[in-house]
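Changelog-adjacent note: as of this version, every example in the card shows the full chain rather than a window. The one below runs 44 residues end to end.
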Amino acid sequence: MQQDLMCLIDMVEVVSQRYPRYRKYFMVMNRALVRMMYQSEGGK
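Full-length structure tokens:
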């Protein structure tokens, strides 16, 4: 599960570099993903 999230975060990073216009949306998405990751960590 955590590995998938890390993969997703990397993907978002790559895409945001390719489409700088949408960068702020990707930043928000990334923050949400990171928060989800930390929550799933704490839940264990």
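Structural remarks: The chain has a mean pLDDT of 83.
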